[in-house]
Amino acid sequence: MNKHISLIFLAQALYLSLSAQVQVKQLLTEGLKDPQTIDNAHPRFSWKLSTEQKNTLQSAYEITVMDGKKTTWTSGKITSDESLHAPYEGDALTPGKLYSWKVKVWDNHGHNSASTEPAYFRMGITDWKAKWIEPGYTEQATNRPCPIFKTTYRNGKKVASAIAYITSHGLYEARINDKKVGDGFLTPGFTSYNKRLQYQAYDVTNLLQSGDNNIEITVGSGWYRGTIGWGDNKYGKTLGVLYQMEVTYTDGTKETIISDEHWKSGTGKITYSEIYNGEWQDNRKETTWTGVKVIDVPLNNLVASVAPPVTKHQVFSNIKMIKTPAGENVIDFGQNLSGFVHFKASGQPGDSIILEHGEILDKKGNFYNANLRTAAAKDIFVLSGKGEEYFEPHFTFHGFRYVRVRTKAKMTGIEAVAIYSNTPATGDFECSNAMINQLQHNIQWSQVDNFVDIPTDCPQRDERLGWTGDAQAFVQTATFNHNVNTFFTKWLRDLAADQLQNGSVPYVIPNVLGNDATGSAGWGDAATVVPWTMYQVYSDKRLLEQQYPSMKGWVDFIQLQSPNNMWASGSHFGDWLSYKSENRYADTYTYITTQCYYALSTQLVINAAKVLGKQDDVAKYSALLKKIKDAFCAEYVTPNGRIMSNTQTSYVLALAFDMLPENIRAMAAKNLVDDIASYNNHLTTGFLGTYLLSNTLTRFGYTDVAYKLLLQETYPSWLYPVKMGATTIWERWDGMKTDSTFQTTDMNSFNHYAYGAIGDWMYKNITGINMDSSTTGFKKIRIMPRPGGNLTYAKASYESGYGKIGVDWKIQDTKFIMDVEIPVNTTAEIYVPGKEGKEEVGSGKYHYESTINTTKK
Question: Is residue 731 among the annotated active site residues?
Answer without folding.
Answer: yes
